[in-house]
Amino acid sequence: MLTKILEKKREEVLSLTIPERTNVSERSFYSALKHSNRKPALIAEVKKASPSKGIIKENFHPVEIAKAYEAGKADCLSVLTDESFFQGHRDFIVEIKKEVSLPVLRKDFIIDHKQVEESRNIGADAILLIGEALEAKELHELYVHAYELGMDVLVEVHSLAVLEKLMSEFTPKILGVNNRDLSTFKTNIHQIKTISTSVPKDTLLVSESGIFTFEDVKTVQQEGAHAILVGESLMRGENQTAAIKALYGEENE
Ligand SMILES: O=C(O)c1ccccc1NCC(=O)[C@H](O)[C@H](O)COP(=O)(O)O
Question: Does the domain spanning 1-11+28-252 belong to CATH 3.40.50.720?
Answer without folding.
Answer: no
